[in-house]
Description:
Helices cover 3% and strands 42% of the residues.
Amino acid sequence: MPSGSPPASRLTVEEPSQLQPAIDVANPADEEQLLEGFYEPDPGGWRWAAPEFTVSLGVPEELKGKEARIELDLWIPEAGWADLAGVTITAKTADRTLGQWRAPKAGAHTAVFAVPAAITGEDAILVDFVLDRFIPPRGEETRRLGVVASKFRLMAAAR
């Protein structure tokens, strides 16, 4: 299981409409940027994503009109690997596929997706993530479980 608890409350007050380029799934302050496909946090503060989930990420001024990348920190539990072995995550915007990432094994990973300059011209981007497999509901579990998502970051493209 991922360790850690939600970060301490922020000391600054931000406008609710100001979208951040980096969000922590366990931070209640970032909740408005988790648009679809996220289940309620588990007692440990971590959160499962469904096989399809969507986030909005703010585009900082220094990235506007420039190539960037999205990093998704995630965890795949060993117990779910039988269903998720080799899961592929596809990241898309409304009109473009940003790329795919394939899980090599269970555990903690960072999936990286290239973002072309044409997409970073607005104040924010909506990104849909689609998994090609998931853990189906079993027993009392009614959710379709994808991965445990923890952080999303829109940042400058690697040089």
